[in-house]
Design a protein that fits this description.
Helix content: 40-55%
CATH topology: Rossmann fold
Number of domains: 1
Strand content: 5-15%
Oligomer: single chain
Shape: globular
Largest sheet: 7 strands, parallel
Radius of gyration: 18 Å
Distance between the termini: 32 Å
Number of strands: 7
Number of helices: 8
């Protein structure tokens, strides 16, 4: 990160991070605060969000269900002007397509794709006006490849990658310092991943103890879970001055998955 003396590189920037109650979102919020940004955090109601706000020194917290459009609109109102938008909120549902519940399909796409679109739509005018902004979408390696039993998740994350590229092209024509990026990590050590283990074991008919090594990391060249803080460091780099050079880029943190 570029620094002016001891002053953090994001001093004075205002950020909104969704899904910040735990995992990747929490790590990103911590990293942005550490870089001097004023960070508002949004997530489902519960102790996780409140404790994150306290952990961040009283950061503004917004309890919201991003599957509801009126809740997304409220997040935008409560967050105020946003210089850095990190669309991180996510969820998972594992099922064969023929058994996949329609309501789960709708919910996953609403949270991960529609909400990302609506939040970007809401903050971009202000970014253009202030002539600086970053839209950073936490996609997934599943935004680039598919896996069985994850139809809604894979579809949503592919959509997020396409949305990122579209934002980048439109923003470049308006202001070169407003950029959009997608980060596509392989499996990250988060509560979401931990919750998937039992579902994957049932879907694949194997023991839960074998899910991480034999299913989750089977395509990785490096058989290691990514840590949330490592994704957070990528986010702050993308907020730096050199990152304009890769607007519309897809940053694959895939531990060699796509090298096969």
């Amino acid at each position: 990160m570029s620094r002016n003396g001891d002053r953090p590189g994001l001093h004075g920037r205002r950020a909104l991070v969704t899904g910040a109650g735990s995992g990747i979102g929490l790590a990103i919020a911590e990293e942005l605060v550490g870089q001097g940004a004023c960070v508002a955090i949004a997530d489902l109601p519960g102790g996780g969000l409140r404790s994150t706000g306290e952990r961040l020194g009283g950061a503004p917290t917004i309890e919201a269900d991003l599957s509801e459009k009126d809740e997304v609109a409220r997040v935008l109102r409560e967050a105020g002007p946003v210089d850095i938008l990190v669309n991180n909120a996510g969820m998972q549902f594992v099922s064969p397509i023929e058994e996949f519940p329609d309501d789960e399909w709708d919910r996953l796409l609403a949270v991960m794709l529609t909400a990302s679109f609506l939040l970007a739509k809401g903050v971009l005018p202000g970014m253009y006006e202030r002539e600086w902004g970053r839209v950073i979408n936490i996609a997934s390696v599943h935004g680039l490849v598919a896996s069985p039993f994850k139809a809604a998740y894979v579809t949503a994350k592919h959509g997020v990658v396409g949305l990122t590229k579209t934002i980048a092209l439109e923003a470049a024509a308006r202001c070169p310092d407003v950029t959009a990026h997608a980060i596509c990590p392989s499996y990250v050590r988060t509560p979401l991943i931990e919750a998937q283990v039992a579902d994957q074991a049932r879907a694949h008919g194997i023991a839960a103890s074998a899910v991480v090594s034999d299913v989750m990391l089977s395509s990785n060249a490096v058989k290691r879970l990514i840590e949330p803080a490592q994704v957070a460091e990528a986010v702050t780099w993308l907020c730096g001055p050199a990152a304009w050079t890769m607007t519309g880029a897809v940053l694959s943190m895939d531990a060699g998955w796509l090298a096969h």
